[in-house]
TrEMBL record:
Superkingdom per UniProt: Bacteria
Domain HNH nuclease per the UniProt entry, residue ranges: 149-200
InterPro entries noted in UniProt: HNH_nuc
Pfam family, one: HNH_2
GO molecular function: endonuclease activity
Protein name per its UniProtKB record: Putative restriction endonuclease
Native source organism of the sequence: Cyanobacterium aponinum (strain PCC 10605)
Keywords, ordered alphabetically: Endonuclease, Hydrolase, Nuclease
Length: 256
């Protein structure tokens, strides 16, 4: 007998969809197999649900990718609720993940985020939220770029950073938005953060005059050789033009 998808299952599936390139939404993906076991569904059913989400994704529509087109009503409800509410998605998905990992769970249990009144409790929950948010943001951004630096294509995960275009401290509303993230290696992330590199309206690398002043092989290899090159484009969440404009106008060092 066919079993309807629950809200909890759909939230987990959507969070996984956001962290996975379109080309890996298939039943042989080990992570899809793991998720299917967790929620007691077949890998094929999970893969089809993820592809259903893709048919609702405006980012893929811009690239001419339409998905299956036979999504359910609840699929759209979940997509519309969470697509621009990243903090809520990350927190609920983390709680659900921990819930479903528990083999002895009470399926009637209410899942919610406990908000304590005591100051010490508030500090703990704030730190927990930040850890969860940063972890999910990193997963989404690195996955979006196939775990490659957008500038130099370095693909060693330990040396990759989910860089914020508008810094974390400057705008609370953009902190978890995948369009505010770009995958960079540690060197290019540091330079980007310091305003020594940025990206123009055509997503090409621009190098600060301060970098051009330094004459040595390392600078040529890591920076000058990439000047005016297009970035390695992401699979789903393109960097926002508005966010890049903010970086160029407020952080990028344009003159000596």
């Amino acid at each position: 007998m066919r079993r309807n998808w629950t809200r909890h299952e759909l939230i987990l599936a959507f969070s996984f969809y956001c962290q996975t390139p379109f080309g890996k939404l298939h039943r042989l993906n080990p992570d899809i197999i793991k998720l299917s076991k967790m929620i007691d569904r077949t890998p094929n059913a999970v893969a089809l649900k993820l592809v259903n989400f893709s048919s609702l994704d405006p980012e893929l529509k811009k690239r001419g990718i339409k998905g299956m087109g036979n999504y359910a009503k609840m699929d759209k409800i979940i997509f519309d609720e969470f697509h621009d509410n990243w903090e809520k998605l990350f927190l609920e998905a983390e709680l659900l993940y921990e819930f479903y990992k528990n083999k002895d769970r009470d399926t009637s249990q209410e899942i919610y985020l406990y908000e304590p009144n005591r100051k010490i409790g508030e500090e703990i929950i704030t730190k927990t939220k930040r850890r969860i948010n940063q972890n999910f943001f990193r997963k989404i951004v690195l996955s979006n770029y196939n775990e490659n630096c957008a500038i130099c294509s370095l693909n060693y995960v330990s040396l990759l950073v989910a860089s914020h275009i508008i810094p974390w401290s400057k705008n609370k509303e953009t902190r978890l938005n995948p369009h505010n993230g770009i995958c960079l290696c540690s060197i290019h992330d540091k330079a980007f953060d310091q305003g020594l590199i940025s990206f123009d309206e055509e997503f090409k690398v621009i190098i600060s005059p301060q970098i051009h002043k330094i004459k040595n092989n390392a600078i040529n290899n890591y920076f000058i050789n990439f000047n005016h090159r297009e970035i390695n484009f992401p699979k789903k969440f393109y960097p926002s033009s508005d966010f890049l404009s903010y970086h160029r106008n407020n952080i990028f060092i344009k003159s000596s």
